[in-house]
Amino acid sequence: LSRDFLPRGSGIVTRRPLILQLIFSKTEYAEFLHCKSKKFTDFDEVRQEIEAETDRVTGTNKGISPVPINLRVYSPHVLNLTLIDLPGITKVPVGDQPQDIEFQIRDMILQFISRESSLILAVTPANMDLANSDALKMAKEVDPQGLRTIGVITKLDLMDEGTDARDVLENKLLPLRRGYIGVVNRSQKDIDGKKDIRAALAAERKFFLSHPAYRHMAERMGTPHLQRVLNQQLTNHIRETLPSLRSKLQSQLLSLEKEVEEYKNFRPDDPTRKTKALLQMVQQFGVDFEKRIEGSGDQVDTLELSGGARINRIFHERFPFELVKMEFDEKDLRREISYAIKNIHGVRQTGLFTPDLAFEAIVKKQVVKLKEPCLKCVDLVIQELINTVRQCTSKLGSYPRLREETERIVTTHIREREGKTKDQILLLIDIELSYINTNHEDFIGFANAQQRNTQTNKKRAIPNQVIRRGWLTINNISIMKGGSKEYWFVLTAESLSWYKDEEEKEKKYMLPLDNLKIRDVEKGFMSNKHVFAIFNTEQRNVYKDLRQIELACDSQEDVDSWKASFLRAGVYPEKDQTESEDGAQENTFSMDPQLERQVETIRNLVDSYVAIINKSIRDLMPKTIMHLMINNTKDFIHSELLAYLYSSADQGSLMEESAEQAQRRDEMLRMYHALKEALGIIGDISTSTVSTPVPPPVDDTWLQ
Prior knowledge:
704 residues; alpha+beta; Rossmann fold; Four Helix Bundle (Hemerythrin (Met), subunit A); 4 domains; eight-stranded mixed sheet; five-stranded mixed sheet; 49% helix
């Protein structure tokens, strides 16, 4: 470079890595990344800026920092190279340096020299024992083959009289695969005396030509030769990477080709283009919406459930779970039946016959409770539909007004349909309330109800049938006993087992499902897991000394899905214990045997009839929502959305491009032309560029 701009002095001078990019140019100037707008032509100012920027981050008392200073130097005297000047290894801390200064500098150096694309210049003074060189030892750690390491020997002019480094420089004494290059730099006295670098290079050449030990290899010594060696390495590297670079650029060009085709003859104000784009966008929106709801083989989201799959989960996992949560508390139900029977008989003694009116009153009360989970199901589906609309309109991002209007129109239509769907569902429940059909083929009837025990009415799945497998975390094992841990769980109709892993060889425990129930557990502070718990209704420990085991999943969806699986196995959710103490005491009232028999009969009848209604509602709810809301919204998007868009705003404002889209188009065209130009340049490069082969391996065991 023939310029003097790097700080020099005693002690540690380089306290931050300096990334120096040399760029061939007709004019000579320098610029820093931290003050890009300023061009430095006076290189004394460059040195002052390096010193000031170092002190700004590290302080003035010898502190260090791994944050690099980036400097670009443009000059007609340089070859295109990037050099990184790293701090020298300091053993003893001085000034503000920390006690572990040696390790900090070592880590910083390793961070840069570990990269496969970097060439390591291991600089060692000639008046020091080369076998103890820290630079060479560190280079050996990251480059055991020696393919990237060049030894640089300095201070050859300061060796004791009668000694020389000839054997080292000839690569005989302590060999390196790429050998050594000797250089003679200016002394501190030369620097203080402002000795010119050109004069210093001439003095270096004279030293090698006149020294008897180095005269025969003077052409392979000195700073200019080191420059040429580094440039040759850069040439080799470029030659090796050209084929892969060419194919990478070609694939980028191909990927841009299709999009650029649209923009080649682009005229922003062309009305026919706007009309065509609007029609295509609305049509594509309709297709995307239908695919997300109905499912499709192309562009499948593999990261999470979306659209139709989530709605299906609401229909067949979430909604049945909400229905079961409405299941009546046994004590409450029996008390209500006994009150109903007594109130029907009034002042008279409890009759011999079980009154039908008590059955009807209790059934109607239970059916009314279905309204809440049904309306909640509609709300969940609406939320999913609106989310699906938002996901589909993301493709309209280039036209913000169009996206906004499309979202508004479709969401408004969904909200309109919400009212009609809810009215229809409430009508279904009112229809169920209007006539209690005791002649239904699945209804057990009075005769059967008297003999039937309530327990036999609860159907269990096939005993050994596996209902679900999957990973769950047991969340409440104390840290003393190993802390929370993930296991592979297998749920069957009779038991819950967990194993070490999915091979199911090492079983940790098997828990029978008898008397088990589920309860919700609040999400822990700072925890991203969603938790539910299993406990025994008879106050027994469930696992070891735990009254309940808390099971954690990654998402609320997984929790809902596991709860639905437990329902199938007959493990129900816990009822909310909101009874007052007075109510709890009333539960202990005694019944005469006759009343008890009547209560038991009605209890069985209610159980049977409510099961029929639940089955009917579970079947009709998805059908009603699909017909009145989902299919209707699809038809609306296909047939009426365009008309609503035209009436809401004029085409010009709807199809107004966002600033980001215009910028993206310009960038894409610029990128396209730059890629074509780059491929043209690569095509012009002569593949007969001289490259040097890699030197053969040498015995460098002395570095161990």
